[in-house]
Amino acid sequence: MSHSHTGSAGFDPVALAARYAAPIFLIVLVALFALAEPRFMHPLNLMNILRQVSIMGLIAIGMTFVILTAGIDLSVGSIVALTGLVAAYVAKGGLDDRFAIGAAEQAGNPVFLAILAALAVGALCGSIQGAAVTRLKVPPFVVTLGGLTAFRGLALIFSGGGPISGFSPNYVWWGQGRIEGVPVPVIVFVVVAVIAHIVLKTTRFGLHVYATGGNAAAAELNGVPVRRTTFLVYVIVGVLSGLASFLLSARLNSAEAVAGLQLELDVIAAVVIGGTSLFGGAGSIFGTVVGVLLIGVLRNGLVLMNVSSFVQQILIGVILVLAVAVDQRAALRGADR
Amino acid sequence: MTDVLQLTGISKHFGAIEALMGVDLAIAPGEVVGLMGDNGAGKSTLCRIIAGRFTPSTGTVRLDGKEMHFRRPSEAREAGIEMVHQDLALCDNLSAALNVFLGRELTMGVGPLRFLNKRAMQAKAAELFAELKSETRPGDLVKQMSGGQRQAVAIARTRLSEPRIVLLDEPTAAISVRQVAEVLDLIRRLKDAGIAVILISHRTPDVFAVCERVAVLRRGTKVADKPIAETSPEEVTGLITGAVESA
């Protein structure tokens, strides 16, 4: 993994521990579950964890871009609801036979059109919010809180309240299919993560994302297109939410307006646990992947050990706060110098 | 030697407030001019006009005798006017090399597939720091640097192009005594390279240490413009406060 944007630091044990806290914790957690529950390390179970986290992970990748610019997107769960319905609608060619299984093969549109529609609507949602942040100067928290309720409302109106289900096998393959035993959503997640990593660490746009989060005023004075960069990160998270939502609808063979409820909380938790600073300017895709895996492993392991899902919620909450405490500490040390 | 920059009758008002009234200023290549004045005297406004962040209400800016009308800082920069901001405009989370190249990154690749050429940027930044005789290492995070090293990064940035004029806004305001000496050395290197430097400062000792000439602004007008050799810190202080009317 390359930390090339953030350069080589001197030896600082606290900073080093803070940087690798999440991967270390992930390894410890996997080891603990492996010892406590033999079924945990079974390849089928491990693949299961990957499949479970891949959809949330795609959105977390987009969220990483946003949080790196010191922004936030609370609307991703609602974008998931809306874009999933759009994909389903396009695949079905309308709402006439919304429940009829296999009907899409006669009346509907090809799957790639459904994917394109989900991505386009996700991009549109992101553009609206990106424009509100950069042009109207409304804080991202407020803009996307508005998006959270508005896009959910749109999804409810669009669907009339009910689900759209029963897609063609080609559609469902994207959520349930496997290539060489690996679930398709996992492959999509890995491909997107690799591309996102390359974009952040080796391109001008990636550098500008870090610069915008590090010091937007300074970046602007040096000719960095801060406004365009900020706008684009909201488009990216919108598009990835659309992609994740399409995969989710394919996996469930159904799309509905209540999909993705409170998904933003998991996504933000994963990014922050992965070490991306809420103050912007520091973090990585690698960290986010670790954060996503951490949440997935924790959920899966606790379920295998028959621990109540309420306890899971408590644990994830505690880990989230601890992760930010570590981040806060690192930020304070930075300010000391 | 002909002047590289010539300001004639520069005035700037913001609504009813007259920030500058008919200021003339000229500077030759390799000349270091101190621009002094109390808070609100118009130093920053004048600099922002030179650097293209403000347009003057009246008056002309000439670069090499040619009248310029900058509409934005990037235009001034292209014409060879670089500014080092008071807060240095650095991104603490990036390395020294990336800060030097921020907004003017070197890339490689084909067509739309372009990637940052970090190796080239590191090498060029190292070269610039060496020229400035600064110990700054291009790979180090700016967050971890001393005030003097941060200044070196901000000044190295001005050397990326072939600047004619470098404006320095209070470069010694917030750093230690030892670091002030470092910064003054950096200014001498710019001068040696034939670059005209305008040093905005509150600190009389710095101006007397490094400048050949000092211009004093008071409430929007230039009250003095004379060689350092013909004035004294006492007179300059009097000019800034108004105890000495003009000189």
Secondary-structure map:
The complex is a heterodimer of chains A (337) and B (247).
Chain A: H1 13-36, H2 43-68, H3 76-92, H4 104-107, H5 111-134, H6 140-159, E1 164-165, H7 169-176, E2 178-179, E3 182-183, H8 184-202, H9 204-214, H10 216-221, H11 226-252, E4 254-255, H12 263-273, H13 285-304, H14 309-336
Antiparallel strand pairs in A: 1-4, 2-3
Chain B: E1 5-14, E2 17-27, E3 32-37, H1 43-50, E4 58-63, E5 66-68, H2 73-78, E6 81-84, H3 96-101, E7 107-110, E8 113-116, H4 118-131, H5 147-158, E9 165-169, H6 177-192, E10 196-200, H7 204-210, E11 213-218, E12 221-227, H8 233-241
Parallel strand pairs in B: 3-10, 3-11, 6-9, 9-10
Antiparallel strand pairs in B: 1-2, 1-4, 4-5, 7-8, 11-12
Helix pairs in contact in B: 5-6
Total of DSSP H or I helical runs spanning 4+ residues of chain B: 8
Task: Characterize the quaternary organization of these chains.
Answer: heterodimer
- Using the coordinates above, name the CATH class of chain A: Mainly Alpha
Average predicted local confidence, pLDDT of chain B: 89
Biggest β-sheet strands, sense, barrel of chain B: 6 strands, mixed
Which chains share the greatest interface? A-B, 28 and 31 residues
Helix/strand-derived category of chain A reads mainly alpha
What is the strand arrangement across the widest sheet of chain A? 1-4
What proportion of the residues of chain A form beta strands (DSSP E)?
Answer: under 5%
Class of the domain at 5-89 and 161-241 in chain B in CATH? Answer: Alpha Beta
Strand content of chain B: 25-35%
Shape of chain B: globular
Number of spatially distinct domains of chain A: 1
| Element order of chain B: H for helix, E for strand | EEEHEEHEHEEHHEHEHEEH
Instruction: Examine the coordinates and then state which fold CATH places here, giving the name of the CATH topology of chain A.
Output: ABC transporter involved in vitamin B12 uptake, BtuC
Backbone shape of chain A: globular
> Which residue ranges of chain A are poorly predicted, with pLDDT under 50 across at least 5 consecutive positions?
none
